[in-house]
Amino acid sequence: MLHHIHYLDKKSAAFLSEALIKHFSKKTDYTEIVVVCIGTNRYSGDSLGPIVGSRLFERLEGNRHVHIYGTLDKPVHALNLQRTLSYIANRHSQAYIIAVDACLGQFYKIGTLQLVEEPLQPGAGLGKQLHAIGHIHIKGIINNHGPLNHKVMEHTSLTFVNEMAAVISRILVKASQEIIPHLLSVNPKDNQASS
Known about the structure:
Elements: E1 2-6, H1 12-24, E2 32-37, H2 48-60, E3 66-69, H3 81-91, E4 95-105, E5 112-116, E6 136-144, H4 149-154, H5 158-179, H6 188-194
Parallel strand pairs: 2-3, 2-4, 4-6
Antiparallel strand pairs: 1-5, 5-6
């Protein structure tokens, strides 16, 4: 299922965080949340994921239930994606995984945030065959899809990308705060059983 809304819509954070929480609640046997933010810090258009990751790291650092992969300092991209996914599979085997990435789309959809209830296929818009990521993913349409996609990614407004990243970060922080009490590791029944 696809949920979409423009990032400037005042209801965007509430709308997409609610859809994310509903998706999580369909199967609640997760012990933690992992957010994988895909992209690079070399092109403004492709920096959406790492900017989101850095913002989340600032907001959620120290929270033992949420793990962020892909920041401006340590981006997750095509060259290290497989290694990162192997690490996540070994270290976070029962995690609810949310992927974040930038994408290109039709001109009239620029600025739209999409929450898609299936794994992310990173690099698809640039013809790359990379491993799918996550139980669900958020994409931000940052520019127009066309014959020169690499050039478009290079020449996207960083201010625009930053604004979109701020909204995605709010969505993920809000959803995480709602989801954390329902993770298996913090279930009150589990705590009573262990005491």
